[in-house]
Design a protein that fits this description.
38% of the residues lie in helices and 25% in strands. By secondary structure, the chain is an alpha+beta fold. Strands 1-2-3 form a 3-stranded antiparallel sheet.
Length: 85
């Protein structure tokens, strides 16, 4: 699991500093039910004690392999749209 998580987090970091990944196991079913959501910060946090900023969630909760494919497609689209081939 750690290898998959590290691979996913490395891919998310390639999207840029405003993109983040949220992941959690779904209780009470436990192990094997981890789901991932990608979100983008669209307005930064002004006061960490009272403000969460504004986020835009980019997908529904996905299992690891589906999420990784989703991230790969975003990376390919993002780099292609900037003209870097």
């Amino acid at each position: 699991m750690a290898n998959t998580l590290n691979r996913i987090l490395n891919k998310v970091s390639k999207l840029g500093p405003e993109y983040h990944c949220m992941h959690q196991e779904i209780h009470p079913t436990g192990a094997g039910t981890r789901r991932y959501i990608l979100y983008k910060i669209i307005e930064p946090i002004n006061n960490p004690k009272t403000d969460f900023g504004k986020q835009e969630f980019l997908n529904k909760p996905l299992p690891a392999l589906e999420f990784e494919n989703f991230i790969d497609k975003l990376i390919d689209d993002k780099w292609w749209s900037k003209g870097a081939v």
